[in-house]
Structure formats: C-alpha cells, structure tokens
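Entry 0007
Protein: Flagellar motor switch protein FliM
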Amino acid sequence: MSGEVLSQSEIDALLAALSAGEMDADELKKEEAEKKVKVYDFKRALRFSKDQIRSLTRIHENFARLLTTFFSAQLRTYVQISVVSADQLPYEEFIRSIPKMTILTVFEVPPLDGRVLLEVNPNIAYAMLDRVLGGRGVSLNKIENLTEIETKIMSNLFEKAFSNLREAWESVVDIDPMLIDFEVNPQFLQMVSPNETVVVISLNTQIGDTSGMINICIPHVVLEPIIPKLSVHYWMQTQKKAREPEEVATLQKRLKQTKVPMIAELGTSTISIQEFLQLSVGDVIQLDQTVRDPLVIKVGDVPKFIGQPGKMNKRLAVQILDVIKGEDGDDE
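Output (structure tokens):
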C-alpha cells in the first residue's frame, strides 16, 4: 500500500469491505508486492547518487550567487539568480527540452576532460544585450538573425560570467573555464552521444522585468574523475593530516631564524600643531619620561618588554627588566 495517511472514514470503509468479503486481504498483499517492482529504463541510466546531486546543487547555489553579483555589476539593474533543480537525464532528452533556437555556449574546463554547455533562454540573453548597449533591458527575440556584433558581445559576456564557475568549484577541483564555441541551434551541437547521462542544473533568472532559465549541462564524462569528491564523506571530512616530526622541526628552525624589528622607545611628548610647524634644526623637545623611567621595548608595533638604557662594549644598549603581559594574563 502507499505511504499516505488514511482518514478515519477511509479506515472504517476498508475494514467494512474486508469484513463483508468485498475485498480480500491476500489480494491487498499481492498488490503491495507487485508495487515493489520498479521499471528500470536502461536508456535513462541513473549514474549519480542523490548525495552527489545534492553536492552539485550546493556548488551551483554558490555559482548562482556569484552570477547574481556579476550580472548586477555588469548590467546595472536588478538581477536575481537561483537554482531551481538539478537532474540527471540523457543528453538527447536535454536537447529536446530546450528551444529550437536559443543561446548556446560551450566551454572546456581543464584539467577535466569533455565540455560543459551553458544554455541561456533568448528572453534573458536579449535583455542582457539591451542593457549592455544602454537600453532598459527589453527582451526582443530575434535569435535567428544575430549580427556579428551581437554574437561577439553575448559570447564575451557569458565567457566572463562562466569564469565565476572557477570560484564555485574551488573546494572540489581547480578548473579553468574556456569558451570554445557559440551556437544558436542545438541540433548542430553534439557534445556527447545521445544516451550519455548528463547533469542539468537549471537556474531561474530575473533581470529587471524579464525572467527566464539558464541551464548548465555537465556530461558524466566530465565529472567522472571527481565523483568521489562529491560524496558527503568528502564534504564532512574534518580530520586534518598530522604533520611529520621532520616537517615540524624544519618549520620551527625557519621560524627561529625569522628577523623581527625591535624598537626601544626613549619617551613620548605631546605638542600642538602650531609648535610642530615652528620646529627647526637645533630645537629641543622635552619628553614626558625622566632618565630614571624604564623604556618600553616593542617587537614590531606591539609592546613586549620593559628595559633600561645603558652601554655595552662602548655601544648603546638596552637591558630587559620585565615582560609585558597581555590582557588575558598571558604573554602576547
């Protein structure tokens, strides 16, 4: 039986039917057993687990936020982009689902093999083009008559936008997206075999008063080398690799050889700007400290020690008397 919850009246009617013999309990069990058999379509092979699809969704939710920021700056208008769905389906089915004439940009993402397809609804693409050219962002669908200038502007815009995918994927793999093709007819674009499984991430896009979809099609062959990194175990892993003793010793040795500036402050004084402007060679500034007061010794800009001035081997020196404690009582 299905997992839905029955109302009390439905339960009473079911019990009454069983009691009256109108319904056989054995038939119910048989029907339930038959429902457990699921039809598997080998043409629509599911090669990604739900866990991996969720990981891809998280990655592209970050990508959607980056695109929102990028297009808002480029188009100088209200832009909102969000992930609607992430599905796996055959490449042929994806091609049939998109308009016959649309904006298609193909990217390579080295070091991963294969190519990634970015499909932008013509309404969105023309609204972007209109904004870039100084318009109000009005959509005018004349995709079959793209001029060379319009093609160049659009390809440059989407190439810059897709470069944000590098930042979105950096937690999994370092990629370098590169535009390699621009097309308007999906029938002329054959990236993989028709039955190849692809992941399609759909982004709902709002630009001013115009809305539409941006679809990212990623073939299985592209993601195959990094599929283990898309599991929840990879994302939830917090254990850090312990450093080898030799590495720790090397770091300590180099750290001890690091040079830091030390400053012995002889004293301070407060004067007015008028007095400061009138200073000249030979003038004397009276310090607030006396010669008997200890000096503050700084490491960088941080007060670290208390000392007293003196001489050592006929050279000026400072003797450390005490260590300045931090606010929490520990050494800074």
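Curator remark: Residues 51 and 232 are 7 Å apart (CA to CA). The chain has a mean pLDDT of 81.
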